[in-house]
Amino acid sequence: MAQLYGREWTRDELMRRAGLVTQLGSVREVELRDGVGRGVRCAEFETGSGLAFTVLLDRGMDIGACKFRGAALAWEASPGPAHPAYYEKDGLSWLRTFHGGLVCTCGLTTAGAPSIDDGESLGLHGRISHIPAANAWVDGGWREDAYEMWARGRMREAVVFGENLTLTRRVWTHLGSSTIHLRDTVANEGHQTTPHMMLYHCNFGFPLLDEGTELLAPSYAVRPRDAVAAQGFGVHSTYEAPIEGYAEQCFYHDAIASDDGYATALLVNRAFQSGQGLGISLRYRKAELPCFTQWKMVCAGTYVTGLEPANCWVEGRDKDRANGVLQFLEPGETREYSLEISVLDGQTAIDAAISALPKA
């Protein structure tokens, strides 16, 4: 049943009171009409609980802006959700069209830092977030007393004489829900073994991220990526107010999974709205996404933290190959991934989520 307005409702009870279900919550397809985003198709979701978010159909079906009762959860980068025609692949040029957003997908054949691997020059974080969806399906419907809203589509990353990979994505939620579900299937439809790197760049910003915000991510071990991160290792799990000239820091977590195989990371701001409290829970299956990178960037003007479950690290494909951790897809092979992102509304929800975290 739908949890709305402080109680549970059956389908019949709600539809006796509403002319259209869109009066209560909806998903609709829209198109951006201005600036560098002109022509980008989007799916806009409103669940009725206060959760609203946008799926960028022409940007790898990434999840862009996300708000809860008007308060932003996701960080939105200054380039905005630019049309994929503006994509620049070399070096760090990916950053010119990095939209930030709740989920920015990195891959499918490379992720992380630019590198030269096996004779191929690879730019930052790969191409997939700039590939438009084909056969996009945006809709909603009743499943007994639950109303489900979804966006579904398929992206193909392919080149003549090279890789031919597809990513089939489904993003969905329910009427009255404060949880977003994402499920991906990556398939090698080519005839050659292909490197496969997959990283979910989940980006959180103000006001969820603010001075005193905490990361709670149960881990067997945490290590800094480099000497810069080592300087901030002692306070890696807490966040400061914006700092002029702050240099990004990354920390690698060996996450602890629960009995169901899911690892969980919480980002909580207990001081939000004079102590009311706001947080998010990010859940993912560790077996498919064994790596977890925390990106801490509390610089004035670029104030963001990234929580990044992945099947790779972020130092480049050449490094993963050299370290023996680079993954491959054989012809005809598929991989499945899933994320679950939930809003923690208030101190009671935060405390319950903390108590449910796995222990070492």
Description of the molecule:
The chain is mainly beta. It has a single domain (2-355), classed as Beta-galactosidase, Chain A, domain 5. The protein has five helices and 25 strands. Strands 11-12-13-14-25-21-20-17 form an eight-stranded antiparallel β-sheet. A hairpin with a 5-residue loop joins strand 5 (51-56) and strand 6. The radius of gyration is 20 Å and the shape is globular. The model has no long low-confidence stretch (mean pLDDT 97).
SSE series? EEHEEEEEEEEEEEEEEEEHEEHEEEHEEH
User: What gyration radius follows from the Cα positions, in whole Å?
Assistant: 20 Å
Low-confidence stretches: none
Mean pLDDT: 97
The strand count comes to: 25
Task: Report the CATH architecture.
Answer: Distorted Sandwich
Across the major sheet, the strand order is 11-12-13-14-25-21-20-17
Briefly note the structural class of the backbone: mainly beta
> Strand percentage, roughly?
35-45%
Number of distinct helices = 5
Helix content: under 10%
CATH topology: the name is: Beta-galactosidase, Chain A, domain 5
Q: What quaternary form is this? A: single chain
What is the name of the CATH class?
Mainly Beta
The dominant shape is globular
Largest sheet: 8 strands, antiparallel
In brief:
With 360 residues, the chain is mainly beta. Helices cover 8% and strands 44% of the residues. The protein has helices spanning 11-15, 227-231, 272-275, 317-322, 347-355, and strands at residues 2-4, 7-9, 26-31, 41-46, 51-56, 62-68, 71-72, 104-106, 115-117, 120-122, 134-143, 146-158, 164-174, 179-188, 194-196, 199-204, 214-216, 219-224, 249-255, 262-269, 278-285, 291-299, 302-310, 327-329, 334-345.
